[in-house]
Specification:
Blueprint: H1 8-13, H2 19-29, E1 44-45, E2 53-63, H3 75-82, E3 89-95, E4 104-106, H4 108-116, E5 119-124, E6 127-128, E7 139-142, E8 144-145, E9 153-157, E10 161-163, E11 166-168, E12 173-177, E13 180-184, H5 192-211, H6 217-227
Parallel strand pairs: 2-3, 3-5, 4-6, 5-7, 6-8
Antiparallel strand pairs: 1-7, 2-9, 2-12, 10-11, 12-13
Length: 231
């Protein structure tokens, strides 16, 4: 029996919506998380044309500004950890340097390796490079683009991280696109499509009035009232 209250198909279904729409749905389903659980700083997408990615978080920390001063996580151990099994994974990497992104963990080689392991992409406050040589379809949502990997090395894996205000832990469901990323509570995964449908119907009432001939403030007020009554 699966340890998760959702399937691969449930995760795949959420890729049809952008991350802001997922956040809208979560405002209905988990109102206590309205102001938490998502990135709050501007981020850079390696390819804005790629669809959203949805998968289980594989968390880790890195540094790059200086050479390691002690024991580090062997890169093979990181690869073992992030590899997808029954469900797709997303790397969530926190750069611990005082200037995150000093050196890039992500480039041609690492995106190619991770894609082969079944990882869909990465969310990081760090940097990435090799923009014209990244593995096709592998999405990077990061803090910035930079030219060098400097002394980049893995520090830890599997523990909670904070990427631009988004607290993420191992096995959290992550939804990300060029807007940023959000953690989806496991119990909300299957309920999100219905919640998003409700919001879309509410919004459509308002959007249709705004686009209709003879738009007026009175018509808008009436639409806003009707939108709140849709269920």
């Amino acid at each position: 029996m699966s340890p998760y209250p959702f399937t691969r198909a449930d995760l795949e279904a959420l890729r049809q919506w952008d991350t802001p729409t997922i956040c809208n749905g979560l405002e209905l389903l988990a109102p206590e998380r309205r102001a938490i659980g998502f990135t709050v700083e501007p981020m850079v997408a390696a390819d804005r044309a790629l669809p959203p990615i949805v998968g289980l978080a594989r968390t880790g920390t890195i540094r790059a500004k200086e050479a390691p001063r002690g024991a580090v996580i062997e890169r093979g151990a990181w690869y073992d950890y992030v590899a997808a099994t029954d469900l797709p994974t997303i790397a969530v990497l926190q750069d611990l340097d005082d200037r995150p992104g000093y050196g890039a963990f992500w480039g041609e080689v690492n995106t190619t390796i991770h894609k082969a392991l079944g990882v869909l992409g990465c969310v990081t406050n760090g940097s990435f490079r090799d923009l014209d040589m990244l593995a096709p379809g592998f999405q990077l949502i990061g803090g910035r683009v930079g030219p060098s990997h400097a002394h980049v090395h893995n520090v830890d894996l599997g523990r909670p991280v904070n990427v631009f205000g988004m607290q993420a832990a191992h096995d959290d469901v992550i939804h990300a696109d060029f807007h940023g990323a959000v953690v989806i509570p496991a119990a909300a995964v299957r309920a999100l499509p219905e919640a998003i449908g409700l919001i879309a119907r509410r919004e459509r009432v308002i959007l249709d009035v705004c686009a209709a001939p003879g738009f007026s403030l009175a018509a808008l007020r009436a639409a806003l009232q009707r939108a709140g009554e849709i269920h």
